[in-house]
Specification:
This protein is an alpha/beta fold and 231 residues long. It is 39% helix and 15% strand. It is built from 6 helices and 7 strands, in the order αββαβαβαβαββα. It has a 7-stranded mixed β-sheet with strand order 2-1-5-4-3-6-7, with helices on both faces. It is globular, with a radius of gyration of 35 Å. Mean pLDDT is 79; it is low at 1-13 and 15-62.
Length: 231
């Protein structure tokens, strides 16, 4: 028993001496030793004011503002496949559905325009219009759009295909119809506009329920318009 106790005391003493020697070596390490170049970030150096920054670091510290001389678009005018200009004023008086597309799109735009074909056939002769705006106007000239529209049996009076300057179309999408558009980029939404030119809602056409709601909204608008004409 005594031998076991002595051995234990020797082991404990050895461990204690080892820990003490390690602490002494660490405190005596040279300033340029391993880890001397590391920067530890804490509360003491977390905040840096402009006095310690280079001029190029603070060059953009002021929030940017939109140019005051550029008015936010509220109406537009674009070139139709017929070669005639079509404006928002021309579209007033009846509801219309706005979409964005481009003729060389191999899949989504084809499905989208098939849905518009379905809507055109369902509401044929009832005044509602469908306004398809190209997001690749350099390719989609009036001639190209005439050929493209013929693929879907688009009625020339009911289903319009519009083109113009890309930057202008970007603004029309964002500022008037609240849709992000760019060259060969668009959403999968139909924008329903009432007879007064106000947006009624946005409908995601791949969703069957939303497409059904769009049809119901168009029907409701047409019935209200018919009732107002009778009274």
């Amino acid at each position: 028993m005594k031998i076991f106790t002595h051995v234990t005391l020797i082991l404990v003493a050895g461990i204690a001496l080892g820990l003490l020697a390690r602490q002494v070596r660490h405190s005596a390490a040279p300033a340029d030793g391993p880890g001397a170049d590391e920067v530890i970030y804490g509360n003491d150096n977390a905040v840096v004011d402009n006095a310690t920054l280079r001029p190029e670091d603070i060059a953009n510290d002021t929030p940017t503002k939109p140019p005051e001389d550029v008015a936010w678009l509220s109406e537009f005018e674009l070139l139709e496949r017929s070669g005639e200009m079509v404006s928002t004023d021309d579209l007033k008086g009846a509801p219309y559905v706005v979409s964005f597309f481009f003729s060389t799109c191999p899949s989504i735009c084809v499905s989208q325009n098939q849905k518009l074909k379905e809507l055109q056939d369902e509401f044929a002769g009832r005044g509602v219009r469908f306004v398809a705006i190209s997001v690749d106007p350099e390719t989609d000239t009036p001639e190209v759009l005439r050929e493209y529209a013929a693929r879907f049996g688009a009625d020339k009076d009911q289903w319009l295909f519009l083109t113009g300057d890309l930057n202008y179309i970007r603004r029309i999408g964002a500022e008037i119809f609240q849709q992000p558009v760019n060259k060969q980029f668009h959403t999968e939404r139909f924008v329903l506009v009432d007879a007064d030119g106000k947006i009624e809602g946005f409908y995601n056409w791949p969703e069957k329920r939303q497409l059904a709601e769009l049809k119901a909204s168009i029907e409701s608008m047409l019935q209200e318009e018919a009732s107002s004409k009778k009274s």
